[in-house]
Amino acid sequence: MLIVGPTGTGKSHLAQALGHCALRQGFEVLFTTHNKLLGQLHAARATNAYERKLQQLVRIDLIIVDDYGLRPMRSPQDEDFHDLIAERYEHVSTLITSNLDFSEWSAAFPNKLLGAATLDRLRDGAYRIVLDGESHRKPRPLPTEQKALVKGAKTK
Fold it and tell me: Are 64 and 29 in contact (CB under 8 A)?
């Protein structure tokens, strides 16, 4: 499943709710950000435990990757992400959220050919949800005294 939409429209909230449903049905679920996932794979590579970490992630019933493409990948991050998606493809479920429109997903990959192969696997048979609207995150109003100070007025 692929969920896209502007910041604050509920992508992560929806993904977490689906993850909770899967957990209640007895499935193993991992919720992580794209950046943290890449960091874990990088750390495993640095300690010569990459293959073991990759296989651990491949066996999880549902991985939810939040904020895909928030930061562009560098090499070998794009290779690690491709390896994970390719190994999970057609075996277990992956849910990805992103602020990027689907047409922009390839921009996160430095290697365009690798990006095309990875995204082809992700899109194959995937449910795609596009959320729209304004952010549900609203800033708290300033107290009246602070408002007056911000405007340069004097308070008693």
Answer: yes
Residue 104 to residue 5: CA distance in whole angstroms: 12
Instruction: Quote the CA–CA distance of 31 and 17 in Å, as a whole number.
Output: 11
The per-residue pLDDT of the chain, averaged, comes to 92
Distance of CA 135 to the CA centre of its chain: 18
Outline where DSSP puts E strands in the chain. 2-4, 29-33, 62-68, 93-98, 128-130
Q: How far is CA 53 from the centre of its chain?
A: 19
Q: Which helix (H) or strand (E) holds 18?
A: helix 11-24
How many C-beta neighbours within 10 Å does residue 80 have? 22
Give the Cα separation of 136 and 58 in Å (integer). 33
Instruction: Note the pLDDT of residue 152.
Output: 59
pTM of the complete model = 0.85
